Amino acid sequence: MSQINFIFGSNGTGKTTISRVIADDDGFPTCKVTWKDGTKLQKELLNARVAINIQRLARKRKEPSRIVELESIDNVVNAITTQVDATNALVAGHNKMVAIFEESGHSAHYKMIMGAAFEESVIE
């Protein structure tokens, strides 16, 4: 292991279990943590619970939180990727419709309809 190690992965892959074993190897008799040269190293573990507590403390002190949970980052990236993919599909569909209307000489009508639909959705 390095001086600082990040353990990350999907939900249910054992990240919390591994960190608990490292934090309290005596509490897990079926697991064994072997330290280099037999010297236990200082352990600073940050999991979701600790991150949430730090964020609460920072809010009480009105300080910006500097802790970001890696799983949260993965979830945000996945959500953004899904939104980008959906937006790209909508843009591709829109571009196809514009091309069809342009070929028929009615692109101004399509753009006018789409503009009105957009304005209505923004107002609602």
UniProtKB/TrEMBL annotation:
Q: Which InterPro entries match?
A: ATPase_AAA_core, P-loop_NTPase
| Domain named ATPase AAA-type core: residues | 7-88
Q: Write out the GO MF terms.
A: ATP binding; ATP hydrolysis activity
One Pfam assignment: AAA
Question: What is the recorded name of this protein?
Answer: ATPase AAA-type core domain-containing protein
